[in-house]
Amino acid sequence: MTDPLHVGATIGILGGGQLGRMLSVAASRLGLRTHIFEPGANPPAADVAHRVTTASYDDAAALTAFGRSVDVITYEFENIPTSALDLLEALAPIHPGRQALATSQDRLTEKTFLQRLGLQTAPFADIAAMADLTAAIARIGTPAILKTRRMGYDGKGQARIMGPDDAAAALADIEGAPAILEGFIDFSHEVSVIGARATDGSVACYDPGENLHEAGILRTTTVPARLTPALRTDAVLIAAKILNALDYVGVMGVELFVTPQGLIVNEFAPRVHNSGHWTQNGCIICQFEQHIRAIAGWPLGDGMRHADVVMENLIGEDVNRVPDLAKTGAAIHLYGKSGVKPGRKMGHVNRIVKRA
Ligand code: AMP
Question: Which of 63, 195, 213, 320 is an S-S bond match for 239, by CB 3.0 to 4.6 Å?
């Protein structure tokens, strides 16, 4: 175990989007600084970070200078090139570690890992070519979803297959990229658990939230989720099992389908998660502070939920509703993005529905 970070230490964050921004705010409240590494100009996190490096992930000199300037490295997205990680790993500890990243970067590795842990997943098959897809459809049946193994997010890189006749079009849709076929899960609703694990192996999970997606993008998270007490316990145990198996340090988001056969794991994200934004106003210690505490080697904080909350994402033109939302009791969180685009996450609001 490494020594806890001292006040004034610097956390390097790969990625300067809204998650990097909210991590920076949490770090600064704990007396820690952040240094953002981000290829794009004027990232949301730049407004609130101590330092920003604007460079690409193949700029070895910039990565080296960044790595030497920080005490620990974390990230806000999971698709960081391996070459950048190889270089950075020699300069500062990276949390969460490489195993968590490698597992979650590839849907085939991820599903295989989850099944080996004894967790329920959708039936799946490795698809490298048309012959694999034909065989997989015969075995798994339809409807099914073809998903690229890598780089998918917010429902991108996915094609629905309603019957064997859709196979060729689905493969063309994802441009023949290495993929998995997943059997379609008939779920009643989707929930997620935000869990944290500290360097000493202690684990704390937030109460599961219920997620509603529109066009593949998270629309709202509601806590508490509709779950029986037994399923609520299962959800938290599933997250803890994944955290332990990966010897994980930091916050993770685990997405689950609720079915009559119990909880089925969809995927996990080795980072703070959009469906955990409600914790900013529903808990004393939010997911961002919890992540900073974990990677800084501090004890985890109190993640007990003190209110029923609905988190709503402000997507694209939704941000124009802010003047009206400001007149309500909602807590407004904006990401400082200037250009409004359809599907772009501009901010979110947390409404306290009932105090516990
Ligand atoms: P993903 O990118 O894997 O998180 O998928 C995005 C969304 O597609 C999920 O939140 C679900 O609503 C839906 N989805 C993904 N996989 C499945 C599946 N095997 N069965 C049914 N719905 C799915």
Answer: 195
